[in-house]
Amino acid sequence: MASKKMSKCSVCGGNKKWGKYAFKKELKSGICPTCWNKLFSVSSIARADIAEHFSNEQMKHLTDRDMELIASKMGDSYSAGEYWDDLVECVEHILKLE
Ligand SMILES: [Zn+2]
Q1: In angstroms, what is the span from residue 56 Cα to ligand 1's centroid?
Q2: Label partner for 91 (CA 20 to 30 A): which of 3, 16, 63, 78?
């Protein structure tokens, strides 16, 4: 018998070698490294989201580069604050609904 771990992913159903570098938790969860590390967007912003707080003149000065910077800074402050506590609470809520 092969000694390498072969397992079916509980998320994607993929049945491939998980490799020796997979974290223990991934293997125990039955979720493959690809699904384990798949990214989902938390938030995004548009000019429309901030327009009510600024004048049209101010809005005209916001370039796409500025918007990217704002999004990036908001991402930083979001993940620095209550983010991780909120995240756990949110996941617990969703799990209860299922
Ligand atoms: Zn998978």
Answers
A1: 47
A2: 16
